[in-house]
Design brief:
By secondary structure, the chain is α+β, with helices and mostly antiparallel strands. The chain has twelve helices and 17 strands. The protein is globular and about 60 Å long.
């Protein structure tokens, strides 16, 4: 099965290998990436904060890789919401344009320690709160497959930079599919990590600058890349924990396909590529079930997810109705989340992975309508845009890992699929996605 690709440029592992073999220097790798950004970004607007001079300086000083530097000489970007010392962190707000980070976020520290060279930061929506990357400070990021369409959000700039070949990889964040929808829209790979696996320290709203804040709930950080190997490597160098891995052939895997949700109908442009992918998996010997009595009540889960998401995004401040969630209800909501997580744990006692759409639709035309008021046609019927967050909450509410891989296309637009696993099975999700990709694309 084919999906639209934009570049054959080497990924992170291939770039690091070329540097180690002496085929290019770190400086040459950095210069090539800068040239690609300068060639393409006038039309895409993905890399909105550049740090080219310091990147060149860093690369020029790199001589011999240490054994613990698997990303030695690899040029990359990070999402604008990560602190990089000396660069602004604005979360898309003009009033924070002079909010210059004093130190690197933990993720950036780890990437640099692994040998990566940070070229700059990529575009986001204000407060990371939309499925498109457009803000008053940096403007709008275009999908590299179709500039009239969105690149996703909130990690849309990073996904567009990776898809177009500007950089081999990126680090983003996800609370409402913010890694997964850009991967889906741009035809690349993305991994939403298990909650708590990768530090979010230094990935903090500018209003909280200068003080350490609690990581909160639901939100995670994770990698974007053009293949599974790069995802796994980026996760290895940024994770707080060393996770066990279970290596199994595809034919030994038992999948549960979830393509229907009571809160969100899936458009045919997404369903058809997913159905074709499931048929190929079955031909390859994998077991693909369509129902399970162990699947939690998805309507209830979605309602609870939206409630927790809204509180998390507002950090407990009053909502549009002027009311804040009472403390007793907050603890009850956390208890409900735990019960939901236990239900998914039971399901993964019978199935290895759940396969689902990342969203109900493909990359949509740019739309300035506020998210809460936005509408979209699904199978020709007018629908509330926000209903599609049901597919984000599938893995987010129970704190599960999810890998998105490209599986096909409709009318030239890429389509992805989520591979969701039990908590802490992050590398297994990536490995399963890789095995699926090999069946679909060779």
């Amino acid at each position: 099965m084919a999906y639209p690709k934009l570049t054959d440029r080497p990924g992170a592992i291939a770039t690091a290998a070329a540097v180690r073999r002496g085929e290019c220097t770190p400086l040459q790798a950095v210069e090539r990436a800068i040239a690609k950004i300068e060639q393409l970004d006038a039309h895409i607007n993905a890399v909105v904060v550049t740090d080219f001079d310091r990147a060149r300086e860093t690369a020029r000083a790199m001589t011999v890789a240490r054994g613990d530097q698997p990303l030695f000489g690899v040029p990359m970007t990070v999402k604008e919401s990560f602190d990089v010392a000396g660069l602004p962190t604005t979360w898309g707000h003009v009033e924070f344009k002079d909010n210059i980070a004093a130190r690197d976020s933990v993720v950036v520290q780890r990437l640099k320690a692994a040998g990566a060279v940070i070229l700059g930061k990529t575009n986001v929506p204000p407060d990371l709160a939309d499925l498109q990357s457009d803000n008053p400070l940096y403007g709008r990021t275009n999908n590299p497959h179709d500039h009239a369409r969105v690149a996703g959000g909130s990690s849309g700039g990073g996904a567009a930079a990776v898809a177009s070949g500007m950089v081999p990889c990126e680090c983003g964040s996800d609370i409402g599919s913010s890694i997964r929808n850009p991967a889906h829209f741009n035809g690349i790979w993305g991994h939403k990590t298990s909650f708590g696996l990768v530090s979010r320290r230094g990935h903090t709203h500018p209003l909280a600058t200068g003080r350490d804040v609690h990581d909160g709930v639901l939100s995670v950080v994770g990698p974007l890349a053009r293949d599974a190997g790069d995802l796994a490597l980026l996760l290895e160098v940024t994770a707080d924990l060393a996770l066990a891995r279970r290596d199994r052939p595809l034919r030994a895997m038992r999948f549960l396909a979830v393509l229907d949700h009571p809160a969100s109908e899936v458009d045919a442009a997404v369903r058809l590529p997913l159905e074709a992918a499931l048929a190929e998996l079955q031909k390859a010997g994998a077991t693909v079930d369509r129902t399970s009595a162990l699947l939690p009540d998805l309507a209830r889960q979605h309602a609870d997810y939206l409630k927790l998401l809204n509180v998390a995004m507002a950090r407990g401040q009053p909502g549009p109705n002027g009311q804040a969630l009472p403390l007793a209800e907050w603890f009850a909501l956390l208890d409900t989340q735990a019960v939901n997580e236990y239900a998914w744990e039971a399901l993964f006692g019978h199935h290895d992975f759940v396969l689902a759409p990342p969203l109900a639709f493909l990359a949509f035309p740019h739309d300035a309508t506020p998210l809460r008021d936005r509408r979209i046609a699904i199978n020709g019927r007018d629908s509330a845009f926000a209903d599609t967050l049901a597919w984000a909450g599938l893995a987010t509410f129970p704190n599960l890992p999810s890998t998105v891989l490209p599986v096909g296309e409709t009318a030239g637009l890429p389509c992805g699929m989520q591979v969701i696993g039990k908590r802490w099975a992050d590398f297994d999700c990536i490995a399963a996605a890789k095995a699926i990709g090999e069946v679909l694309h060779g």
